[in-house]
Amino acid sequence: MRRFFPPSLAACAILGFLAFASCVPEKEAPPKGASRRLSIGFSLDSLIVERWIRDRDVFVSTASSLGVDVIVQNAANDERLQASQIRYLIDKGVDVLVIIPQNADILGDIVARAHSKGIKVISYDRLMRNSGADLYISVNSIEVGKIMAEAIVKEAPAGNYVFINGPKSDNNVSLVQEGARSVFVKYPGIFYLLDFYADNWSYDLAFQQVSRLLEEGKRIDALFCGNDGLAGGVIRALSEYRLAGKVPVVGQDADIAACQYVVEGSQLITVYKPIHDLAKRAAEAAVSLAGGKEIEVSGTISDGSSEIPVIWLEPTEVNRSNIDEVVVESGFHSGEEIYRNVPRANRPAAWR
Fold first, then answer.
1. Is the whole-model pTM more than 0.70?
2. Is beta strand 299-302 parallel, antiparallel or unpaired with respect to 316-318?
3. pLDDT, tens only, 7-38
4. Which of the following CATH numbers is that of domain 141-273+321-351: 3.90.550.10, 3.40.50.2300, 3.40.190.10, 3.40.50.150?
């Protein structure tokens, strides 16, 4: 692991018990003898995706336990609203910004504005392109793509593949594709029947695209979905043609509905991301950046114009045989929730 020191704070003197007070330009120091609580601005693109609620809750809880306030803003999938909300957080004088970008390409100027105020910026789970953020922390999306591809080619090493991707504005989409294509290139019998990008990770668009293909009588041999929400829309379409469980479907995030589909047989796999650890590490890193402390990083990643320090966490495949070990034992979902729709006689003994 490499150690990363925030360059603009490394030379700042830390005095007495004001060890966490900011030492950056255009911020007023607290009166002598008084301490100021640090604050973090946390900008989410939306709370529509189930997992972001978990990220938010763990992040806020961890930061609070470290004595730091968090101001949460939810942009409801509106890139302009998110930009406005981030400007509000900058004007409010937060010490660090943590951003889940709705559009990875439009926040460079806002990051530059934050830096001009001495505010550090963390790109959370989605990389902001050409922004020069101070840190990127995420689950390794290239590995996610490899896991999904390796699982589905075992079921369908050739045939008509349908790809229902997330939006192009999300940099993780291209990373997942990079990982998946490194696997698919070894299988010349795979035909790309459809390669679709669903704006805002829309369940309805996923449903509509697959329904259209089925209405046209197209044969589908495999469905590669950008996340579990999209996989849910796909499975609904398959169900209307009595094909659910007959065509392999993969997704990621280990949402509760996806875990239920996995044990029911409608979804081949999902990918578990250590959300608790990711959000916890991000909160700890944000507090360290605010206080000018060193943080350990995995290396760097290019955002298109700069090399950004990155912290990678590793994903895990979730299938019917390991779902208890990976998902239940981690506390991510309970066995009662996962097996709710499975007849008791067909459940593992522990959940009958």
1. yes
2. unpaired
3. 443 343 333 333 333 333 344 444 433 456 89
4. 3.40.50.2300
